C-alpha cells in the first residue's frame, strides 16, 4: 500500500485492477501511459463484516459479491453483480473500479446509494471516507484526487431488518449497458411497514440519483407500487442517446421503480 | 512511453512458458503474437464479445482485458489445451455433433466458458448454461445448438448423432474439427511466410470535408519505422472500386474530399509498433469541414450533389408495376396504409476484417476474409492496373459475413502497399474501425398501402421505399431493384406499383445485409396484411392463406412459379399450433395480474435466392488424381453457412462415394473456378447445382436424391460405395458429362506457382 500510494504521488498514473474499463478505453493501441497495478494488494480484497456493518475491499469482483454470504439487504447488489457484463467481466471487474470509472450507467452505483455506502480512499496524506453520493460527481468524474486509491466500500448495518432489490433494463440479458436501472432498499418495522427506504435510479442522469419524495412517502406504508408518482422522478435528467430517448428512460424508470417496490413486499 | 519487454513466467495448457513482452500487453495478444496460440480469437478488445475467453486459474476471463503482468505465476488454459492425446474433449465432440460451431469464430471462447461451467457445476441447468455462456457472442447459431451441445456434454444422452451420408444426412461439418480445436485460420490468423509490414488507415474524423496534406515527407522522416505513407497518388491503377461495373465510385484513398466519417485518406505502412503509436491527429492533414448531407436533406433535395453521376443524390431508382394499382385501391372494400422507418444495422460478425497481401513477381496474392473471391480479384486487378489472372485471392476462414464481407475493405490498401513496397503487408481492423467504415443495412423509409375485397382477397398494393445508401453505391442498386420485386410479399396481388430510390448521404455506405432491403419491405407488407385481416374480420393466418402464392401463379414481374411454392403447405402446417398459441395467450392474459401479457403473431416473407436481375453463374471442378484421390475444387466460400460441407455432400452423392472420400480445395482463385459470391442464399442451390453435373455419375444421382427426399433412409448403402483407390486403376479415361461436355480433369487446373507470375 505504502509503495502504491507513493508511486501515485510521484507521477500521474492510471490505476489498474481488473482492467475491464482500462483496456476497452484503449482499443487498437497499446497501453502507453504509466500504470499502477493495484491488483496484488491483499489489503484491498475480500468482503467481510465489521462492527459497523460490512467492508467490501475495492478489489472484490462481482463474482466475489455473488459468492459472498450476505443478508437480504444485499439482494439488489447481488442481482446487479449477476447482470454486469458476462461471467468474464464478473470474474475480473472490481467494485472499486466500477465506482472510480463513474459511468452514468454503472450498475453498482445506485446499489451503493441505496445501501447508504461510503468509500474509503488512501493516499500519502492518509485516509478519508466519503459517502458514495459525494464521491461520484458526474459522467466519469469522481472526488478521487489523482494520487488516491479507492481501497474499500463500507455499508452500515441498519438497526432494522432490511431487504434490497435491483431492476435493470437492457436490450438483452448479458453484455449490455443499462438503459435504466433501479436499486431499492427498505428497512422494515415490526408491523411489516417500511421504516426507511432508499430508492436510486441509474442511467437516467449524469449520476445515479435517489428519489427523496418517494422514499418519504413509502415510510409507514407497506411496499405498494401505487405509491410511486411521476413527480418522484423530478431529480432525474435523462438524455437521448443510442440506447434510448429521454422520454423512454423516464417511462421505463417509472415502471422499474414500481416493480422494484412490488418486489420488496 | 511504453514499458520494455520483460520476462513473465506462467503456465499455459500445462506447460511453463516465458513471454518477454511489456507488462501491460493484453494476454490475448501475448497468446496469439508471442506464443503463437492463434486459437484464442480477438473480436473487440473491449470485453464485449467474449471471443478471447480463456481460463485464468480456472475462471473464464476475456484475455483482451488481462494485462500480462497479472498472469505471472498463474495458469492459463486455451482451446489448444482441450483435446488430449488426439481425443476431443467431450464439449468439442458435442459441438461438432450439434453443429454448434458454424463460422467457428466464437467457438474457442464458447468452449472455454463451457469448460469453466462444467468444472464448477458438472450437471448444470439450462439457465446455468445461459449464465455461463452469456459473455460470449455468437452471430450464426442463435445459441440453441450451443446450449444443447453443452447440456449434452454434461448430461450425456443420445443427442444428435452425426451420420456420414448423402444429402439430407446429419453430416458433421467437414471443416468442423478445425473449428472446435482452434486450428481454423481466420483473417487475422493467417501470416505471411516472410517478415511483413503492418498497415493502418488514417481516416477522416469528418463526415464531409475537403482536405489537403501537409508535409508528408517530413512526417515520414520523423517516424523512421514507417516504410511508406500511401495516398491516392500511390494507387497504380484506378483509384476506384465498387460492386457494379458502372458503380465504381469509392476511392481506395480519398482525393481531396471525404464523404463519410472514417473514409481512408492515407495509410501508414511500417513496423507494427510504429504504426500503432502514431495517432491520426499526428498526420499532417488540413481539414476543411463541409456540412454533412443527411437522409432528410438529401430526400428534400436541399443538399449539394455528392457525386456528379447522381443528380439530386439519387443513385438509382427501381420500379415495378402491373395492372392498375390506383383504381384497384380506389374501389377496394378495405384499405390499410403504413409508414415504416428502419435504422442502420451493423452485421457485427465477430471477426473484424483482416488479412495480408504479398507481391509475388508481377502478381499479387491476398489472403483475407471475404465472401466473394472472384469479385475481389477483378477489383484488385483494376486498382493495381494488372490483368485479373495476376491476382490471386486466397480466402481465409470467415468469422461471419452476413453480407458485410461482400465489399472490399482492407484489400485495396494492403494490395497497393504490398505492390509498392515489395514486402508482405498485413492489416487487421479494430472493432470500431470495422463498425465505423464497413457497409450496413440500408435505413429505409417506406410508405405502403394495400387493399382487398370484402372476402379478404388482395386487390392491390402501392409501395414506395427510400433507402439511405450512404456515401458510396456499394449494393445500393441491388436493394433498389430487389425490393420492388418483393414489396407485396408472397401473395397474389393483381395490381401493383412498387417504386424505390437509393439516396446518397454522407453516412456510412449501406450495402448487402441478409436480404438486400427485402426484410425492411417485409415489415411493411406484413403490417398491412395484419391490418387488412383485422378490417375484414378474418383470422390473420387465414387471411394470408387465402392470398398466398400457389404453384402456377404469376408474380408481378410475370414470372410463373412453375416449381414448388411452399407457403400454403407452411400455413396449413402451422394452423393447429397457431390456434393453440392464440388460445394460450388469451387464457394467460385473462388470468395474469403481473406486468406481462402474451401475444401470438404470424409473418410471411419471400426472398428470391441468387443475383437480382443478373445471370447467376457458378462453376465447380472435380478431379480424380492418379492415386485415386477425388478432389472437389469449390470456389463457394463458406462463411459459416456450411458451403464446404454441402458441396462435398452433393458431390459425394453424385459420385456415390462417402463424403470422407472427397478432398476439398476451397476458395482459392488460383485453384478453384468462379462459384460466384456467397450471398443471397445462393451457394447451396446455384453452386450445389454446379457441383452435381461436374460429377460423372450425376444423372443417376439426381434420381437417387429425389428418392431420398421421398423418405428412404439417408446415406448411400454399403454396396454403393466405390472405393476411390480402386476406381482409378489404369490411365485416366476421358469422362463425359450429360450433354457431352468433357469433364475437366484436375491436372489441367493446376495450382498457381510463382512461375505463373513470371518471377
Short description:
The complex is a heterodimer of chains A (265) and B (759). By secondary structure, chain A is of the alpha+beta class.
Main beta-sheet annotation of chain B: 7 strands, mixed
Oligomeric organization of the protein chains? heterodimer
Low-confidence stretches of chain A: none
Number of helical segments with 4 or more residues of chain B: 20
Strand order of the largest sheet of chain B: 8-10-6-17-14-15-16
- The count of helical stretches of chain A stands at 9
Provide the gyration radius of chain A in Å. 18 Å
Q: Looking at the structure, what is the overall shape of chain B?
A: globular
First CA to last CA of chain B: what distance? 43 Å
- What is the overall shape of chain A? globular
Strand line-up across the major sheet of chain A: 3-4-9-5-6
Parts with pLDDT < 50 across at least 5 consecutive residues of chain B? 698-759
Mean pLDDT over the residues of chain A: 97
Characteristics:
heterodimer, A: 265 residues, alpha+beta, 5-stranded antiparallel sheet, 4-stranded antiparallel sheet, 28% helix, globular, B: 759 residues, 7-stranded mixed sheet, 5-stranded mixed sheet, 20 helices, 27% helix, disordered C terminus
Indicate the topology.
The complex is a heterodimer of chains A (265) and B (759).
Chain A: H1 2-10, E1 14-16, E2 35-37, E3 47-49, E4 53-57, H2 62-67, H3 75-83, H4 87-92, H5 95-101, H6 108-114, E5 118-123, E6 126-131, H7 132-135, E7 136-138, E8 141-142, E9 149-156, E10 162-169, E11 180-188, E12 194-202, E13 209-210, H8 212-218, H9 246-264
Parallel strand pairs in A: 1-2
Antiparallel strand pairs in A: 3-4, 4-9, 5-6, 5-9, 7-8, 10-11, 11-12, 12-13
Chain B: E1 6-12, E2 15-21, H1 27-34, E3 53-56, E4 59-62, E5 75-77, H2 90-98, H3 107-120, H4 126-133, H5 144-155, H6 176-181, E6 197-203, E7 209-213, H7 216-222, E8 226-230, E9 257-258, E10 264-270, H8 272-277, E11 285-289, H9 295-299, E12 314-322, H10 325-330, E13 334-341, E14 354-360, E15 363-368, H11 373-384, E16 391-395, H12 411-421, E17 425-428, H13 431-437, E18 444-452, E19 458-470, H14 476-486, E20 495-504, H15 518-536, H16 540-547, H17 567-591, E21 621-624, E22 630-634, H18 643-655, E23 662-666, H19 683-691, H20 698-709
Parallel strand pairs in B: 1-5, 6-17, 15-16, 19-20, 22-23
Antiparallel strand pairs in B: 1-2, 3-4, 3-5, 6-10, 7-9, 7-11, 8-10, 12-20, 13-18, 14-15, 14-17, 18-19, 21-22
Amino acid at each position: 500500500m505504502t509503495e502504491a500510494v507513493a508511486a501515485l504521488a510521484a507521477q500521474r498514473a492510471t490505476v489498474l485492477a481488473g482492467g475491464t474499463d482500462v483496456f476497452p478505453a484503449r482499443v487498437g493501441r497499446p497501453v502507453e501511459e504509466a500504470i499502477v497495478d493495484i491488483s496484488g494488494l491483499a489489503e484491498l480484497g475480500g468482503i467481510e463484516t465489521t462492527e459497523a456493518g460490512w467492508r467490501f475491499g475495492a478489489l472484490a469482483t462481482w463474482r466475489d459479491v455473488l459468492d459472498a454470504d450476505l443478508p437480504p439487504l444485499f439482494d439488489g447488489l447481488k442481482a446487479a453483480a449477476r447482470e454486469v457484463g458476462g461471467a468474464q467481466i464478473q470474474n475480473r471487474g472490481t467494485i472499486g473500479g466500477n465506482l472510480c470509472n463513474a459511468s452514468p450507467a454503472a450498475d453498482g452505483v445506485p446499489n451503493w446509494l441505496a445501501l447508504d455506502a461510503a468509500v474509503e480512499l488512501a493516499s500519502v496524506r492518509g485516509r478519508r471516507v466519503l459517502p458514495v453520493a459525494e464521491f461520484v460527481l458526474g459522467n466519469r468524474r469522481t472526488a478521487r484526487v489523482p494520487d488516491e486509491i479507492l481501497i474499500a466500500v463500507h455499508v452500515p448495518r441498519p438497526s432494522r431488518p432490511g431487504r434490497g432489490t435491483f431492476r435493470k433494463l437492457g436490450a438483452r440479458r448479458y453484455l449490455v449497458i443499462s438503459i435504466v436501472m433501479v436499486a431499492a432498499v427498505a428497512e422494515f418495522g415490526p408491523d411489516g411497514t417500511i421504516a426507511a427506504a432508499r430508492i436510486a435510479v441509474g442511467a437516467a442522469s449524469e449520476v445515479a440519483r435517489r428519489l427523496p419524495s418517494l422514499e418519504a412517502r413509502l415510510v409507514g406504508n407497506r411496499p405498494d407500487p401505487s405509491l410511486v408518482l411521476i413527480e418522484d422522478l423530478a431529480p432525474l435528467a435523462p438524455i437521448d442517446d443510442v440506447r434510448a430517448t429521454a422520454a423512454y428512460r423516464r417511462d421505463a424508470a417509472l415502471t422499474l421503480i414500481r416493480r422494484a417496490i412490488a418486489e420488496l413486499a | 512511453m511504453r514499458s520494455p519487454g520483460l520476462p513473465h513466467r506462467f503456465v499455459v495448457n500445462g506447460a511453463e512458458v516465458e513471454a518477454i513482452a511489456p507488462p501491460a500487453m493484453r494476454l490475448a495478444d501475448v497468446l496469439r503474437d508471442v506464443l503463437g496460440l492463434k486459437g484464442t480469437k480477438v473480436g473487440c478488445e473491449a470485453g464485449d464479445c467474449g471471443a478471447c475467453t480463456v481460463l485464468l486459474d480456472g475462471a473464464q476471463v476475456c484475455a483482451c482485458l488481462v494485462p500480462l503482468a497479472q498472469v505471472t505465476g498463474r495458469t492459463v488454459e486455451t482451446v489448444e489445451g482441450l483435446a488430449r492425446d488426439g481425443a476431443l474433449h467431450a464439449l468439442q465432440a458435442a459441438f461438432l455433433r450439434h453443429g454448434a460451431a458454424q463460422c467457428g469464430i466464437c467457438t474457442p471462447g464458447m468452449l472455454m466458458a463451457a469448460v469453466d461451467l462444467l468444472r464448477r457445476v458438472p450437471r448444470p441447468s439450462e439457465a446455468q448454461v445461459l449464465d455461463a455462456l452469456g459473455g460470449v457472442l455468437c452471430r450464426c447459431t442463435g445459441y440453441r445448438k450451443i446450449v444443447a451441445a453443452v447440456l449434452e456434454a454434461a448430461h450425456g444422452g443420445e443427442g444428435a448423432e452425426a451420420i456420414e451420408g448423402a444429402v439430407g444426412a446429419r453430416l458433421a461439418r467437414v471443416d468442423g474439427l478445425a473449428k472446435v480445436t482452434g486450428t481454423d485460420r481466420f483473417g487475422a490468423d493467417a501470416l505471411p511466410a516472410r517478415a511483413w509490414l503492418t498497415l493502418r488507415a488514417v481516416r477522416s474524423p469528418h463526415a464531409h470535408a475537403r482536405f489537403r496534406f501537409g508535409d508528408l515527407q517530413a512526417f515520414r522522416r520523423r517516424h523512421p519505422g514507417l516504410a511508406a505513407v500511401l495516398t491516392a497518388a500511390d494507387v497504380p491503377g484506378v483509384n476506384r472500386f465498387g460492386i457494379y461495373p458502372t458503380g465504381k465510385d469509392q476511392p481506395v484513398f480519398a482525393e481531396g474530399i471525404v464523404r463519410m466519417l472514417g473514409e481512408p485518406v492515407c495509410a501508414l505502412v511500417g513496423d507494427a509498433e510504429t504504426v500503432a503509436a502514431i495517432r491520426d491527429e499526428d498526420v499532417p492533414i488540413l481539414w476543411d469541414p463541409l456540412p454533412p448531407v443527411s437522409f432528410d436533406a438529401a430526400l428534400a433535395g436541399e443538399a449539394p450533389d455528392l457525386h456528379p453521376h447522381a443528380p439530386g443524390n439519387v443513385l438509382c431508382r427501381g420500379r415495378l408495376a402491373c395492372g392498375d394499382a390506383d383504381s384497384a385501391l380506389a374501389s377496394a372494400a378495405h384499405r390499410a396504409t403504413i409508414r415504416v422507418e428502419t435504422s442502420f444495422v451493423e452485421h457485427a460478425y465477430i471477426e473484424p476484417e483482416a488479412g495480408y497481401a504479398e507481391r509475388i513477381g508481377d502478381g499479387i496474392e491476398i489472403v483475407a476474409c471475404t465472401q466473394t473471391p472472384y469479385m475481389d480479384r477483378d477489383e484488385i486487378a483494376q486498382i493495381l492496373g494488372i490483368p485479373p489472372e495476376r491476382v490471386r485471392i486466397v480466402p481465409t476462414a470467415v468469422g461471419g459475413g452476413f453480407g458485410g464481407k461482400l465489399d472490399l475493405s482492407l484489400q485495396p490498401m494492403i494490395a497497393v502497399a504490398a505492390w509498392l513496397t515489395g514486402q508482405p503487408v498485413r492489416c487487421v481492423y479494430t472493432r470500431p474501425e470495422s463498425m465505423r467504415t464497413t457497409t450496413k443495412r440500408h435505413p429505409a423509409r417506406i410508405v405502403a398501402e394495400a387493399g382487398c375485397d370484402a372476402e379478404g382477397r388482395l386487390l392491390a398494393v402501392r409501395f414506395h421505399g427510400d433507402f439511405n445508401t450512404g456515401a458510396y453505391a456499394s449494393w445500393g442498386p441491388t436493394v433498389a431493384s430487389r425490393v420492388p420485386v418483393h414489396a407485396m410479399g408472397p401473395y397474389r396481388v393483381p395490381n401493383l406499383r412498387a417504386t424505390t430510390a437509393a439516396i446518397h448521404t454522407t453516412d456510412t455506405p449501406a450495402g448487402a445485409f441478409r436480404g438486400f432491403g427485402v426484410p425492411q419491405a417485409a415489415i411493411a407488407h406484413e403490417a398491412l396484411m395484419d391490418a387488412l385481416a383485422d378490417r375484414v374480420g378474418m383470422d390473420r393466418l387465414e387471411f394470408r392463406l387465402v392470398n398466398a402464392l400457389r404453384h402456377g401463379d404469376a408474380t408481378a414481374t410475370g414470372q410463373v412459379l412453375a416449381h414448388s411454392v411452399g407457403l400454403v403447405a407452411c400455413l396449413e402446417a402451422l394452423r393447429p399450433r397457431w390456434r393453440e398459441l392464440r388460445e394460450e395467450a388469451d387464457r394467460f392474459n385473462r388470468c395474469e395480474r403481473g406486468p406481462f401479457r402474451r401475444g401470438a403473431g404470424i409473418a410471411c416473407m419471400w426472398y428470391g435466392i441468387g443475383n437480382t436481375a443478373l445471370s447467376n453463374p457458378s462453376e465447380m471442378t472435380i478431379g480424380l488424381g492418379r492415386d485415386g484421390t477425388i478432389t472437389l475444387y469449390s470456389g463457394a466460400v463458406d462463411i459459416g453457412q456450411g458451403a464446404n460441407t454441402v458441396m462435398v455432400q452433393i458431390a459425394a452423392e453424385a459420385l456415390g462415394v462417402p463424403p470422407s472420400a472427397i478432398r476439398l480445395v476451397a476458395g482459392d482463385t488460383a485453384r478453384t473456378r468462379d462459384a460466384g459470391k456467397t450471398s443471397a442464399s445462393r451457394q447451396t442451390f446455384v453452386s450445389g447445382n454446379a457441383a452435381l453435373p461436374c460429377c460423372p455419375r450425376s444423372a443417376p444421382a439426381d434420381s437417387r436424391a429425389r428418392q431420398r427426399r421421398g423418405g428412404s433412409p439417408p446415406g448411400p448403402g454399403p454396396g454403393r460405395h466405390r472405393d476411390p483407390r480402386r476406381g482409378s486403376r489404369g490411365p485416366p479415361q476421358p469422362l463425359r458429362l450429360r450433354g457431352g461436355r468433357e469433364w475437366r480433369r484436375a491436372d489441367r487446373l493446376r495450382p498457381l506457382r510463382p512461375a505463373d507470375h513470371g518471377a
